[in-house]
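Entry 14. Structure prediction run on the chain below.
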Amino acid sequence: MKKIIFYSYKETKMNVQTISQTSMRRPTLRGLTWPLLAALLLLSLIGVQPAYAAGLIVNSLDDTIADDGACTLREAITNADNDDQSGSTDCAPGSGADTITFSVSGTISLRSTLPEITSEMTIDGRGNPSPSVETMHTA
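Output returned:
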């Protein structure tokens, strides 16, 4: 004897509704509370560095403005002040409140007055390496 299984349209529709209702349940956050708090605490203890609008890195001790592949202090100040690369394409363009840092150590001998600073910027000579600046001109 053959066994015949017959599903009515109503039963199939009801089964589909039951499945879709159970699959639409939202997951709870109850089990994630302590791990999330622990992760936030860990991140607060790491000592995250502040983010700056733009970073310009001086990698030359020269006091020039030239397209020579090296970013000088004079070029970095000009780019940061004008929020572009008008000082030199060797340095990153300025953008908003800029921070100028150094990747060289030694002495930067200035041959003329540095450009006037008219926008917000930080010149950060701390760290390793740390350059010094001396003037070689008379005012």
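Helices lie at 9-23, 33-46, 73-82.
Filed with the rest of this week's runs.
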